[in-house]
Amino acid sequence: MSMLAGKTVMITGASSGIGAAAARLFAEQGAAVSVMARRTALLDRLVDDITAAGGRALAVGGDVTRGQDVADAVARTADAFGGLDAAFNNAGYATAGQALHEIDEETYARTMDVNVRGVWNCLAHQIPVMLRSGRGGAVVNTSSVAGVAATGASAAYVAAKHAVIGMTKAAAADYGSRGVRVNALVVGSTRTEMMEQVLVEAPQLEQVFMAAAVQKRMADPVEVARAAAWLCSDLSSFVTGAAVPVDGGATALCD
Length: 255
Ligand SMILES: NC(=O)c1ccc[n+]([C@@H]2O[C@H](COP(=O)([O-])OP(=O)(O)OC[C@H]3O[C@@H](n4cnc5c(N)ncnc54)[C@H](O)[C@@H]3O)[C@@H](O)[C@H]2O)c1
Hints:
This protein has 255 residues and is an alpha/beta fold. 47% of the residues lie in helices and 16% in strands. The structure holds nicotinamide-adenine-dinucleotide. GO terms for molecular function: oxidoreductase activity.
């Protein structure tokens, strides 16, 4: 069965990692996907791959921290595919390796901007389109194990990913009775560009991350994308306001 047949899904942070894996998987599952990120050459290549495999995809360049970019991306998606049924708000930014007092203002502001303002911008522009359609919708925001527990030397990221879960619950409460579901993924360590960058800054964290999951490994991006597909699909019709762990059991060890 094609889990997302007939649906249009917008995916942010789709130029690499989890977002790119989700774009490929969602298209395989029957969705028309619009992919948003700043690196448009990578998006164009992704769209070519999806199209060559028989899928439907549209590249919409833009920065999630800019409300106008997000508004344009939502409008172009709805124009191209006749609406918006689901969204995977996945763009994120992380740094690690500094204690709270060592984080500079610019890093703090950027971490909050991409992870928190970015998700808010997306929700604020996507949900009205879903409400107007009369068909409702489903939104998935990417949080992290750092959104439910502290990980060392990343206070700004921990605060930002906690905020993503708070905003997810608040949006679920605001729109639940009008057919829009909003959930978050509590993502564990996953082998992506972001992870590579974090491990360049703090190589000692690789063993810590591997040990944190009861499965004693990191995820492949598609393992996270599969959970996002389920939450975007009608198969999760009674799930909203949830923070769903996809973390190899890492949060099972947090309490
Ligand atoms: N990799 C991990 O271990 C891990 C763990 C927990 C949570 N996450 C979260 O997963 C999400 C995806 O990250 P990833 O691991 O695939 O890393 P990644 O670096 O491969 O992907 C991040 C994506 O976000 C995009 N992006 C960043 N800033 C943007 C902006 N301002 N506007 C538009 N796009 C922007 C990047 O271009 C990229 O496409 C992030 O929200 C991240 O915080 C990752």
